[in-house]
Amino acid sequence: MPEFVEVEAYARTARPVIGGTITGIDVRDERLLRRAEEGYDAEVAHVHGVVGGATIRDVRRIGKLLLLDLSGDRTMALTFGLRGWLQLDGEIARADGTRRTREVREDHVRLALEIDDEHELLLEDLLRLATLEIDVDEGRLGVDVLELDKSTFRDVLAGSRATIKGLLMDQRRIAGIGNLIADEILYQGKADPRRTASEIVGDDLDDLWTGLRRTRRRVLERNGSHHGVLIQSGSRERGESCPRCDVPMERVKVGGRTSYFCPRHQR
Ligand SMILES: [Zn+2]
């Protein structure tokens, strides 16, 4: 699943069309509208009614959610599954703002937007896990991971009896962190993923905050959640060792997700 750094790149892909008018919309996959309670045809008509002819006022990201603010005070929200992304006129952006060309796979396009009769913004989604929702409730999301400061982080931890791994991935508390980045933050921050969040205080909290800052900076610089130390060293695989301590990494399930951690330096 794409984490904040990937969705940040998709937002950068789309930003050149801010100010443009949506002159065409083609929803090519009914699974995109999985919240269609009134039926698929009605939902497609609703999306067409809201999006068609609207002006794109802004492109925002909160956590893993990409938001296109439209004229008439409407918002179109997109989520992305693994192997899903946006493409504008055959180009995609990286999180660092550089762009590269990418060949369109027409059979993977789930949504096509035409802007000013000139630009084509495509949502490609190999595994059909992406979603589109109109006027999403943004209040269900916690503070975005890039907006997070230390005092907010301390408050979020103090109020939680969840495991620290579970809390980092709870989008209602901190938005944007998925499984890979959570493991990387805990690795850098020297914390065992099974610890109770509210019990991480003092020096341990300082270490964890340093780990979070270092991780979010590093994945942005390196353009992806797959560029942490754990992944690069192969330590997120069975039988591999901690690159720091050279002891075997442990593999446990926390909050239903597979977690890798070093039993020596993550306490
Ligand atoms: Zn270690």
Portion in beta strands: 25-35%
**Which topology of the largest domain does CATH recognise?**
N-terminal domain of MutM-like DNA repair proteins
Taken together, the total number of domains comes to 2
From the alpha-carbon coordinates, what is the Rg to the nearest angstrom?
20 Å
With strands numbered from the N-terminus, the spatial order across the biggest sheet is 1-8-9-5
What's the level 1 CATH class of the largest domain? Alpha Beta
* Strand/helix succession: HEHEEEEEEEEEEHHEHHHEE
Q: Percent helix among the residues? A: 25-40%
Largest sheet: 4 strands, antiparallel
Architecture overview:
This protein has helices at residues 4-14, 40-51, 150-158, 164-168, 179-188, 202-222, 229-232, and strands at residues 22-27, 56-62, 65-70, 74-79, 84-88, 91-93, 99-101, 109-115, 119-125, 131-134, 143-144, 174-175, 250-254, 257-261. It is α+β, with helices and mostly antiparallel strands and 267 residues long. The protein folds into two domains: 4-138, Alpha-Beta Barrel (N-terminal domain of MutM-like DNA repair proteins); 142-261, Helicase, Ruva Protein, domain 3 (Orthogonal Bundle), CATH 1.10.8.50. A four-stranded antiparallel beta sheet has the order 1-8-9-5. A four-stranded antiparallel beta sheet has the order 2-3-4-10, with helices on one face. A hairpin with a 3-residue loop joins β8 and β9. The mean pLDDT is 95. It binds zinc ion (ZN). Zinc ion is lined by residues 242, 244-245, 262, 264-265.
